[in-house]
Structures are given as structure tokens and as C-alpha cells.
């Protein structure tokens, strides 16, 4: 049997543990896996594009575990009241190839994206950072605010979105968070005095959410929204002025802010900072940019965390996903075997 | 919600419908999809190799539907009483990226492999074929015998396996099939007088299950067992003497009997025969070889069939795999929402 964590059970888990605990624990798994980066089999995601959007498979593995995530990106879905992005994933045993756990990953991806942002910021932002600007109050915004509060000690969030309803939704969700929230009238106003800036807008186009003149010395930019071909958020000048950090260079050149830069533009992979091979922030005046597009190892970490957390508890069910005859060669025998003949009709 | 067909429900479906009906209906879907081959987005499978085996993702899509299959291949698994190959898969809506149905695919793959073999043989074997030789009495053998009986009117099967227990298992499973079964003492004896030969052995090596002198004029060879790098079953001379048909050339050159042949060795893709673009068998004396490795479109067909067959019936359950907040941007709101607070404890 394969363990299964559905939306309902994951929500129960997060509510019972508290989202801050979940983010803190998840961040440890993500950090641990970045630290042992060379142990992973890495490749760009496998995307299937249509006029409506993309469906992607994101596999990775180490010596013991294999994971993949199924995730779509359909910008027009919100028109029909559907999610732009939904996801699920699976963790398997490399030794046998058998699946271990299947999980919803729409919520889990939102958590791991925010946790990854916060892990990166711990190495790249100034240690005295207290004010976070968030540009874009979409589905990821509250996860970002909560992760930065939990993992970095952010106490103030300045939020901006072109849609006042989205901003209101953000404020409603954050009202008991303990964060001081300010609604800004523009991106410019949001970033004034911010130590860290998260850009997480949804438009699928080359946009300029942040221009160079808005970025002061010492700021850390967490660029999350530019995450697919044809979608960027930062003016290219910012990337030249600051130092750029990425997850997996090959993928970020295709999908991240790096799309705007020449192919030999110098970047540093985040894992090298976490592993201690290279230095992150060098001075209080550095501008650091985490050009984040999301990578398969982060999903691996999230599934590994989830499995350790829920195995054997009431937070997972079991699925009969695997045909397992007593004699492995006698698959056909299952059709004659003693499966109970329930009352059933076929219509 | 996503529809889910587990092992238990699939077995119930097959038992209630009868495996012959299922194979016949499935074969129609497979044939229809081969006929519209150019409509599919095709690519080689994405494999992750380890010392223990391989884990593969096999995606494909047309304008309306996307499918992928997860499948492993771990030759050492039988030692531990596990299946060498287990699989599951999913069909999704290209327009929204949302999953439609998740299914076990260990049994479903066995069915689609046999149905594909029979579909190919209908175009490539002599119409008066009545005797089938099967070399290898493993997990796929009974499915092959049943598909050839149902779809081609085979009435006699000559079976050979190096392991008498496997042969016995085959005979036990086939005892009420209506087929006349003969146990052969060697491959040579099995193929004597056979119209069609299925090779479906399990050894992961370059083997010679069939040598050139065993193959008479007019025979159709259904080579199913040579299906991964380093594994073949036929002596290369046979491929030169006969005409070779494949599913997807690029993949078969890596995984099929074609591994033994030069890169420019002439083959014909099966879909061209089914679509009527090219001729299959040209005379009663032709030797035809279907060098089958299994392709993603066959899984697509199987999932499409299953969905049409079980949607809305008791043969599928539903899974809460997709987080679906009322306001798509308010994913975070799910964590504060009215999910019932059941009695639960976290240990």
C-alpha cells in the first residue's frame, strides 16, 4: 500500500502543528538537502506546453529516495475559478522503485517556496533585517510573510498589489500574525525602507516591477514571480548592480530573471553558500538577489519532511495503487483470485 | 476531486466485464490513437537509473488530454517477493492542467502491452494464423495468450520457459481459456509450426532466445521482452531477413532489438501501417518483426479507455488531491477555513 496525504489531512496537520512550526521544520529539510546538493540527480523540468499553459514533471533523486512533482501553470484558470497552479507529488524508494507516499502539493509547494525564500535570505539578507516589502498579494504572499517572520524575525510587512481586493485578502489573512502590516500605494512606496523585497506578481510577461532607482544599498531581493520563460519582474540593471544567486543555473537561465542577461552572466548557486564553499553577503551595502524559480530538490525535501512527519499517523491514508500478487510472476492470477465479490453493477 | 481507480476496483472491473471484452475495447482505443499518431506530443521516456534499476516517467499529450505513467524496472525485486515492474498513471485536462483520473497501471500496463501486440499482429501476421508460440512464462505471458485468442483467433499456444514452475503457473491460469496448450521442451520445439512467436523473457542481458535457423517463412515475431538498454532476445540475422516494425523509432533504437543494428537500419513505424500510409505484410512468406518496447501513447490510450469506462461508476473513488479554495488567490485562507476539526492527535 502507498501512503496518501490529501488536502484535508495536510490542512489538519498544518493547523494542529501551527504553520510556523511546519515552516521551521521544513526549512531544516530544505537546508540539509541544499547542503548535500552534489548527491542529487538533477535535470531541468520536463514541460509540455499548450496554448492554455504548461504541465510539468519535476523529478530528482539521491541514492535512497526518488521524487517527482506534477505541476501545471495555466494563467487563464482564475477566470474559471480554478487555481493557476496545482500540484501533487510522490516519493519513492530507489532500491525497489516502489512508491512510498503520494501527496497533494499545491499547499506543500506554497510552503516549500516560502521556506526556500527564507532559507536563502538567512544567508543573503542583512542579519538586522526587520522590514519586508511584498509586491504581489496573490496565493504565495501570506506564506512569504509568515516564513520571513518565523525564520528571519521580520516584524513589519509593506504590501502592494494593483488589485485592492488582493491586498485586503492579504491583510485579513495576516491580521492575527503578529506582523505590523502597511498597505502601500505603489511598488515604489512599498520598497522604501525595506530590508528585504519579495516580488511575487502573476503577470506572464516581461514586466518591470522593480526598477534600478528603487533599490538602495544593502537590500536583499527575493525574486520569486519571474519563474517561467517570458516572465520577469526586475529591470536588468538591478541584476548587474547586485550579486545574483540561483538554485540550478541551467534552469534559471531559461525561466528566471536571468532570461534578460547574456548566457555567461556570472551567478552563484545557493547550495554553495549553504555548504560553506562560497560567501553570500559580503558587506552591509551589498545588493543580493535570489533569482528563484523553484527546483525539484525543494519538492524532494518537502516530501521527505512530510513522510517523516506523518508516516503511521492519522494524517495519512493508504491507497491500493500497487498490484502485488503473492508470486510476482503471477499477475494474471490476481484476476482469478479471492478478491471479494462485492455487490456491484456496471453501468 | 480526482477520480481514482485502485487495484481492487480494476480487478473488479475486469472480472465483471471479462478480460476478453476489456482487451477488445482497449485495443480499439490503442488502434484509434496509433491512427492519429501525428496528433501526439512524443518524446523518449525520462529515466532515472541506479544500481538497483530504473524509475521512469512517460508523458505524452494531444490537444485535449495529457497523460503520464510512472513505472519502475527492478530485476532484483522478485528476490524479495516484489514485482519487477509496477506502475501507476494519470490523465489530465490540457485546457486547465487539472488531473482527471489517477489509476494503478501495473495490471493496466499488462493489458495494454498484450492489446498492442495483438493490434500489431492483426496488421503484420498472416490472417490464417492459429498457432502462437510464447517464449517466457512470466507476468505478461497469460495476457499475451488471451489477447491473441481474443483479437486474432489464435486457438493453440505452445509455451516454453526455462523454469517449469512458471510454465505450470501459465497452464493453471489458462486451463479454462479455451486455448489448446502445449508445453514445449525448448524454444526450438515451441516455435516449430507456430504462425506467431511472442518472446517475453526476463533476463536483463543480450540473449539469443531466437536464432535465425529457427525462423521459417511467413512467421510474425512479436518481440516484447527486449525492452531496455542492454536487453535483447533475437539474433541480429533475423532482423536483417525480416521487416522490422516499431512504435517510436527514437526510443526503440535505444531499448529494443534495434540496439544490435546500425543506426540507419531501416524500420517502419507501426502507426504508418495502421493509418494506411504504408503496407504491413506483403506476402504469405514475409517474416515480420514487431520490435515492441512500449510507448507512452499506449498508456494514454489505456487511461483514456479507463476514464470513459469507469467515470461516474462504483469502479472509481475520489481523492482530495487538489487544493481548491473558493478564491483561487486565497490558498492561505484554507488554513483558517472551516475544515472540520476532527478528533485527532499528532504523535
Plain-language structure description:
Chains A, B: Pfam families: OCD_Mu_crystall. Chains A, B: This is Ornithine cyclodeaminase. 2 copies of one chain form a homodimer. Chain A is α/β, with parallel strands linked by helices and 347 residues long. Chain A has helices at residues 7-17, 19-35, 106-124, 141-152, 164-174, 187-191, 236-241, 249-255, 270-274, 296-310; strands at residues 2-5, 46-49, 54-61, 65-73, 87-93, 99-104, 131-135, 156-160, 180-183, 196-199, 206-210, 220-223, 232-234, 243-246, 268-269, 288-291, 317-319. In chain A, strand 8, helix 5 (164-174) and strand 9 form a beta-alpha-beta unit. At the A-B interface, helix 1, strand 3, strand 4, strand 5 and helix 3 of A face helix 1, strand 3, strand 4, strand 5 and helix 3 of B.
What features would you highlight for this structure?
10 helices; alpha/beta; eight-stranded parallel beta sheet; 23% strand; homodimer; 2 domains; 347 residues; NAD(P)-bd_dom_sf (chains A, B)
Strand content of chain A: 15-25%
Largest interface: A-B, 91 and 91 residues
Level-1 CATH class name of the largest domain in chain A: Alpha Beta
Order of helices and strands of chain A: EHHEEEEEHEHEHEHEEEEHEHEHEHE
Main structural class of chain A: alpha/beta
Please give the domain count of chain A: 2
Which spans of chain A have pLDDT < 50 for at least 5 consecutive residues? 339-347
**What level of helicity do the residues of chain A show?**
25-40%
Provide a count of the helices of chain A: 10
Total beta strands of chain A: 17
Integer-rounded radius of gyration of chain A: 21 Å
Multimeric status of the protein: homodimer
Largest sheet of chain A, in brief, is: 8 strands, parallel
Judging by the overall fold, what is the CATH architecture of the largest domain in chain A?
A: 3-Layer(aba) Sandwich
Q: Report the CATH topology name of the largest domain in chain A.
A: Rossmann fold
The best one-word shape of chain A is globular
What would the average pLDDT of chain A be, to the nearest integer? 93
Note the gap between the termini of chain A. 28 Å
Amino acid at each position: 500500500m502507498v501512503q496518501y496525504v490529501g488536502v484535508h489531512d495536510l490542512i489538519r496537520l498544518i493547523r494542529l502543528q501551527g504553520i510556523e512550526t511546519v515552516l521551521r521544520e521544513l526549512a531544516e529539510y530544505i537546508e540539509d538537502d541544499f547542503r548535500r546538493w552534489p548527491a542529487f540527480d538533477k535535470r531541468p523540468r520536463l514541460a509540455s506546453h499548450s496554448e492554455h499553459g504548461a504541465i510539468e514533471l519535476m523529478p530528482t533523486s539521491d541514492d535512497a529516495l526518488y521524487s517527482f512533482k506534477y505541476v501545471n501553470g495555466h494563467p487563464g484558470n482564475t477566470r474559471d475559478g480554478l487555481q493557476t497552479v496545482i500540484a501533487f507529488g510522490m516519493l519513492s524508494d530507489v532500491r525497489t522503485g516502489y512508491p512510498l507516499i503520494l501527496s497533494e502539493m499545491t499547499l506543500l509547494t506554497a510552503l516549500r517556496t516560502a521556506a526556500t525564500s527564507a532559507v536563502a535570505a538567512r544567508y543573503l539578507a542583512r542579519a538586522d533585517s526587520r522590514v519586508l516589502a511584498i509586491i504581489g498579494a496573490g496565493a504565495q504572499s501570506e506564506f512569504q510573510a509568515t516564513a520571513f517572520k518565523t525564520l528571519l524575525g521580520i516584524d513589519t510587512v509593506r504590501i502592494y498589489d494593483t488589485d485592492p481586493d488582493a491586498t485586503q485578502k492579504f491583510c485579513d489573512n495576516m491580521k492575527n500574525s503578529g506582523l505590523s502590516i502597511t498597505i502601500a500605494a505603489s511598488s515604489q512606496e512599498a520598497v522604501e525602507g525595506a530590508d528585504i523585497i519579495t516580488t511575487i506578481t502573476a503577470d506572464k510577461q516581461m514586466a518591470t516591477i522593480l526598477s534600478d532607482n528603487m533599490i538602495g544599498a544593502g537590500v536583499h531581493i527575493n525574486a520569486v514571480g519571474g519563474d517561467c520563460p517570458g516572465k520577469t519582474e526586475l529591470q536588468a540593471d538591478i541584476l548587474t548592480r547586485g550579486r545574483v544567486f540561483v538554485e540550478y543555473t541551467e534552469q534559471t537561465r531559461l525561466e528566471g530573471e536571468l532570461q534578460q542577461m547574456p548566457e555567461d552572466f556570472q551567478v552563484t548557486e545557493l547550495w554553495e553558500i549553504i555548504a560553506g564553499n562560497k560567501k553570500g553577503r559580503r558587506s552591509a551595502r551589498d545588493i543580493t538577489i535570489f533569482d528563484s524559480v523553484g527546483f525539484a530538490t525543494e519538492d524532494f525535501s518537502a516530501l521527505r519532511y512530510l513522510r517523516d512527519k506523518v508516516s503511521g499517523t492519522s494524517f495519512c491514508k493508504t491507497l491500493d495503487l500497487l498490484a502485488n500478487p503473492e508470486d510476482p510472476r503471477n499477475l494474471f492470477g490476481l484476476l482469478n483470485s479471492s478478491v471479494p465479490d462485492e455487490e456491484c453493477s456496471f453501468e
